[in-house]
Design brief:
The protein is elongated. By secondary structure, the chain is α/β, with parallel strands linked by helices. The two termini are about 35 Å apart. Helices cover about 50% and strands about 20% of the residues. It has 37 helices and 33 strands. The strands form 7 sheets. It has an 8-stranded mixed β-sheet with strand order 14-24-23-16-17-18-19-15. The protein has an 8-stranded parallel barrel with strand order 26-27-28-29-30-31-32-33, surrounded by 7 helices. It has a 5-stranded antiparallel β-sheet with strand order 1-2-7-5-6, with helices on both faces. It binds adenosine-5'-diphosphate and magnesium ion (MG) (2 copies). Adenosine-5'-diphosphate binds near residues 99, 240 and 320. The site of one magnesium ion (MG) has 6 residues, from helix 32. InterPro entries: ATP_grasp_subdomain_1, PEP-util_enz_mobile_dom, PEP_util_AS, PEP_util_C, Phosphohistidine_dom_sf, PPDK_AMP/ATP-bd, Pyruvate_phosphate_dikinase, Pyrv/PenolPyrv_kinase-like_dom. This is Pyruvate, phosphate dikinase. GO terms for molecular function: ATP binding; kinase activity; metal ion binding; pyruvate, phosphate dikinase activity.
Length: about 900
């Protein structure tokens, strides 16, 4: 393996091997931009080092060769006494991880070469300043010495001389400081500061390798979903000096404003400084414009270079540069990070400037960024008191009264209040409160906790894991650790689901004009935008989203089971409902009717209960078909296990036992109920009597639903509407299961057609959520008009994970151990579960090439999963109404 690449050998597309920094340094070289020469040690060398704990021999040899070449180019030798070459050793991974890893400057200085540098440069102050920086950086990063020892000594040196800035330290002071720093090294490591330049170089290279695995780097990668096995490249580069005096300096700049996207001159410059001085904020920086006065030649050259880079990368770039005695050097560039709104504006601007095509513009934005633009936001101008900070789990801005329970939540919302549900953590019992609350705040749990997942699904603002909070629901108090403030139910707080902040009291909220645009059209969006910048944002989103719709092959449906949700989904651009769940329709008052069905002794009793449910269920569907007039609505027949509609076994047993003990006597009916509950109790209901199995056991229940769908469709047709229902059978594993239900359906639908004198066209399809269904999809096709992959259950059944049990108990360990980088419930596991989807697709289409196949489940709204679904040829994804715009954008992105 070749481990070392000179800057002249690489280019911008070699990021895997050279890291982003190395690849872009090479690219700038190619463009003829002044870059100090050097070479890059590949990420593969880092991977080997991390695996075995030492660098391969051949790396040592390649470094020698590359270094000698560099020495010849520069006419200097590393650390040589007379005229030393100095180098920087810089980290740089494939994905930028700003400030997460290490860099060491001024390698090659020692007790001899310091004199050479001082003499050659004619600037002893600069030379000694560089030496003390080397010992400081080397001590910290290579030798692992606590950095405070050095910075304390530096502060003491300034204090004893009564000065405030590093630059005011004179040669004598710096010499003393170097001695002190060397003493610190000797004291802390037992060895003197290494004088051998090559030893310094190798030590620094290995320290950069190791910095891949610092805690902060690990945490950063986990958050940004960067794989842990990539490793960093190391760039060894000739030093140029911004700290040579007043004609030198160092700076950073952007080719456009990273927050508005507008072109212009954005950057900072610091005279007589090196490396991180600019961003470290040790002295006040100048605005980049001021460089024009100081050094017009360098300034003009920098502007030209910015233009060259932006034209070449065809995107906003950020840049690090240094001026050494009036000569400009570029030290780094990359496509710059930007805010979500700038991403859309810059992409649209570049299309306008004819620098990129619309297709390319789609690659410059993503669904997550769009999500951020959709939620209401706190007014930036407002005064705020921060109580604490948790994890941003579901974006948005919510203000309301504190409530601690479902009952409080419902009571206060009925009274017209906005509420924030505050819980230590949430569980399925809290759903009622979560539904009515404007926001959800928990003290425990992470981004995949119950609260977070449910809140995201509902598009509800949510902050989780605010660990400083102590929630005492019983006493109705909320306190913040380390403060004696006690909050009670009814006190107003505000939570920011985008930043994780929790504020005390009312904070004004403004709706997002982007949302108004998506829901009501361009004119409404523009009218809602209060300033030019926001108008530009709305126009930019419009440009990109309409282009995405044009390019997308996947269409986007929504998961909705109430007319309001259906209407919202439609306004957001959904082309149908891909999953209308029916179980919620049997809760509340109707639960008793289901209980009756289950308890019925005779067919007659059961029929009675069905008859009572029928009209109610039909009303549900009429509302949804009306909201979705002209668009398909896939109704899933009832899915959950029976026991969910019955009282809890333990609770009921205890209740009756208590009654008996108190001599109250238990009625025959109660005994029978207990008996039935016991019969229906399951050890593992997720794999028990549910879905089509329930439908086959209680044929009348599915029958009732099918009839209600058909009658609702007939009602709508009579009312002049255009209903397009589709009947979906859940948890099918065998073609025979589907066949029986389908035959029932055909019969029922025919009956309704005859009774009502209408023509109904209602396809019947299967939900594919068992591995067996995917593998036998070709035979299922005989009985199915369409398929929809239920990837939530398919993930559970393929992995053998019971979601509610596994996420809380061991997923964190699994992330740490690298079993997966992201939960398979969040982003589809393409190798396993995804493979089942593609097998299912191939099987199905081998028999019926035209059969419509979609995906429902949370993956339908996840960007990475959407790209996968596009690639395996699905027709649509279905996701929660709030995710529809995001999915539209991603479907378009997947197609370009
Ligand atoms: P990061 O990735 O954290 O930005 P860098 O490798 O870019 O770290 O280096 C840290 C600082 O040192 C930057 O300000 C950079 O410009 C400066 N620097 C790096 N190499 C050199 C060099 N050869 N000459 C002068 N300054 C350098
Ligand atoms: Mg940098
Ligand atoms: Mg399911």
């Amino acid at each position: 393996t070749k481990y070392v690449y000179a800057f002249t050998e690489g280019d911008k597309d070699m990021k895997d091997l050279l890291g982003g920094k190395g690849a872009n340094l090479a690219e700038m070289m190619k463009l003829g931009i002044p870059v100090p020469p050097g070479f890059t040690i590949s990420t593969e060398a880092c991977q080997t080092y991390l695996q075995y704990g030492y660098s391969p021999d051949s790396l040592q040899v390649e470094v020698t060769t590359a270094l000698r070449q560099m020495e010849m180019d520069m006419g200097k030798k590393l650390g040589e006494a007379e005229n030393p070459l100095l180098v920087s050793v810089r980290s740089g991974a494939k994905f930028s991880m700003p400030g997460m890893m290490e860099t060491v400057l001024n390698i090659g200085l020692n007790d001899e070469s310091i004199h050479g540098l001082a003499e050659r440069s004619g600037n002893p102050r600069f030379a000694w300043d560089s030496y003390r920086r080397l010992i400081q950086m080397f001590g910290k990063t290579v030798l692992d010495i606590d950095g405070d020892y050095f910075s304390d000594a530096l502060d003491a040196a300034k204090e004893s001389r009564g000065i405030t800035h590093d630059t005011e330290l004179d040669v004598e002071a710096l010499k003393e400081l170097v001695d002190e720093f060397k003493a610190i090294v000797e004291r802390e490591t037992g060895n003197p500061f290494p004088q051998d330049p090559r030893e310094q170089l190798d030590g620094a290279v290995e320290a950069v390798f190791r910095s891949w695995n610092t805690d902060r780097a690990l945490i950063y990668r986990r958050r940004e979903r960067i794989p842990h096995d990539l490793g960093t490249a190391v760039n060894v580069q000739a030093m140029v000096f911004g700290n040579m005096g007043d004609k030198s300096g160092t700076g950073v700049c952007f080719t456009r404003d990273p927050s508005s996207g507008h072109s212009g001159i954005y950057g900072d410059y610091l005279v007589n400084a090196q490396g991180e001085d600019v961003v470290a904020g040790i002295r006040n920086t100048l605005a980049l414009e001021d460089l024009e006065q100081l050094d017009k030649k360098s300034y003009d050259e920098l502007l030209d270079t910015m233009h060259t880079l932006e034209t070449h990368y065809r995107d906003m770039c950020d840049i690090e540069f240094t001026v050494e005695e009036g000569k400009l050097w570029l030290l780094q560039t990359r496509v710059g990070k930007r805010t979500a709104s700038a991403a859309f504006k810059i992409a649209a601007q570049l299309v306008e400037e004819r620098l990129i095509t619309r297709d390319e513009a789609l690659t410059r934005v993503n669904g997550e960024q769009l999500t951020q633009l959709l939620f209401p936001q706190f007014d930036d101008e407002a005064d705020k008191t921060v109580l604490t900070k948790g994890m941003a789990a579901s974006p948005g801005a919510a203000v309301g009264e504190i409530v601690f329970s479902n009952a409080q939540a419902v009571e206060r919302t009925n009274a017209g209040a906005d509420v924030i549900l505050v819980r230590r953590e949430t569980n399925p019992d809290d759903l009622e409160g979560m539904v009515v609350a404007s926001g959800i705040l928990t003290a425990r749990g992470g981004k995949t906790s119950h609260a977070a997942v449910v809140a995201r699904g509902m598009g509800r603002c949510c902050v989780v894991g605010a660990e400083a909070l102590q929630v005492n629901a019983a006493e109705g108090t909320l306190t913040v650790r380390g403060s004696d403030r006690v909050l009670k139910a009814g006190d107003v707080i505000a939570i920011d689901g985008t930043s994780g902040e929790v504020f005390l009291g009312e904070v004004p909220v403004v709706p997002s004009p982007v949302t108004i645009y998506i829901e009501q059209g361009l004119d409404a969006g523009l009218a809602a935008a209060q300033d030019e910048a926001t108008k530009e944002l709305v126009t930019s989103v419009h440009l990109l989203l309409t282009h995405a719709d044009k390019r997308a092959r996947l269409t986007v449906r929504a998961n909705a089971d109430a007319p309001e949700d259906a209407a919202r989904a439609r306004a957001f651009g959904a082309t149908g409902i891909g999953l209308c769940r029916t179980e919620h329709m049997f809760l509340g008052d109707r639960r008793q009717l289901i209980e009756k069905v289950i308890l019925a002794d005779s067919g007659e009793e059961q029929e009675e209960a069905f008859d009572a449910l029928g009209p109610l269920q039909r009303g549900d569907f009429v509302g949804i078909f009306e909201a979705m007039n002209g668009l398909p609505t896939t109704v899933r027949l009832i899915d959950p296990p029976l026991h969910e509609f019955l009282p809890d076994l333990t609770e009921l047993s205890v209740k009756l036992a208590v009654k008996e003990a108190q001599g109250e006597g238990v009625t025959a009916e109660e005994k029978k109920l207990l008996e039935t509950v016991r019969e229906n109790h399951e050890q593992n209901p997720m794999l028990g009597l549910r879905g089509v199995r329930l439908g086959l056991k209680l044929r009348g229940l599915f029958g009732l639903q099918i009839r209600a769908i058909a009658e609702a469709a007939a009602d709508r047709i009579e009312a002049g509407g255009d209903p397009k229902p589709e009947i979906m059978v859940p948890l099918v594993g065998s073609v025979r299961e589907l066949q029986i239900i389908r035959e029932d359906a055909v019969e029922i639908i025919a009956k309704v057609e005859e009774d009502r004198g209408v023509k109904l066209d209602i396809p019947v399809g299967a939900m594919i959520e068992l591995p067996r269904a995917a593998i036998t999809a070709d035979s299922l096709t005989e009985e199915a008009d369409f398929f929809s992959f239920g990837t939530n259950d398919l993930t559970q059944t393929a992995w053998g994970f019971s979601r509610d049990d596994v996420e809380a108990t061991f997923f964190n360990e699994y992330f740490d151990l690298g079993v997966f980088g992201v939960s398979p419930f969040e982003s589809i596991d393409t190798r396993g579960v995804g493979k089942l989807v593609s097998i299912g697709m191939k099987n199905a289409r081998s028999v019926k090439p035209e059969i419509q196949c979609g995906v429902c489940g949370e993956h339908g709204g996840d960007p990475q999963s959407i790209h996968f679904f596009h690639s395996v040829g699905l027709d649509y994804v279905s996701c929660s109404p709030f995710r529809v715009p995001v999915a539209r954008l991603e479907a378009g992105r997947a197609a370009v």
